[in-house]
Amino acid sequence: MSEAVLDASALIAYLKSEPGGPAIATILPKSVISSVNLTEVVTKMIDEGLSPGQVKEIFTETSVATVSFDEQQAFAAGELRASTRALGLSLGDRACLGLARLLGVPALTADRKWSHLDIGVEVRQIRD
Fold this sequence. Notes:
globular, 7 helices, alpha/beta, 5-stranded parallel beta sheet, Rossmann fold
């Protein structure tokens, strides 16, 4: 049973030892990430000069389980559009929040604008 859903920003903070990243270390083995958010992480790391093989190796070492983006999640993310449009949340943001809602667990993020959401999902900021 997972205890949290990681946003791409949370996993990137951990991988790059950014502020808030060390707090993620303790919850990694009990966390999941949407395949949509993993795509964001992979893209960011490749943009920063890592090879796909290096990214795969680093991600494998995290022990974070990936949840494939399926039809149920597509509807969950799509349904969040109306209530998150004013904040400009992306598909990736809504994929994370939709998965957290489906699993009934908090979403962990470094994205401050999520603090203003009232969508039935507990949002935990990883940075003070």
